[in-house]
Amino acid sequence: MKSISIHGIAEEMDKAIGERAKNEGKSVNRVVKELIAKALGLDEKPLDNRALFEDLCGVWTEADEREFQESIADLEATDEKDWK
What DSSP designation does 81 have? Predict the structure, then answer.
């Protein structure tokens, strides 16, 4: 693999890359490679934006889901006399 050096990185950019690496638990090198790949359309996995909308959609706990499933259980049953 090739190596490159990038000179003249603005302080703001350096700080943003460093913060991103720290937040994602990755090396600065890996973050830079991912950013370049994404900018060039070479990233392999699709972008997952679900977390951006959690405040709009809500997030259910397991207890919330269990309560919901229990409350709609009777809707899952088929009453044969309704189909005659």
Answer: G
At residue 49, the 3 state secondary structure works out as coil
Question: pLDDT for 53-80, tens place per residue?
Answer: 877 887 788 999 999 999 999 888 888 8
| Residues shown for the chain | 84
pTM: 0.51
Give the integer Cα–Cα distance in Å for 76 and 70.
10
Upper half-sphere CA count for residue 23 (Cβ side, 13 Å): 7
CB 37 within 8 A of CB 43: yes
Tell me how far apart the alpha carbons of residues 1 and 52 are, in angstroms, rounded to a whole number. Answer: 35
Q: What CA–CA distances, in Å, run from 19 to 16, 66, 72?
A: 5, 38, 45
Whole-number Å distance between alpha carbons of 38 and 16 = 16
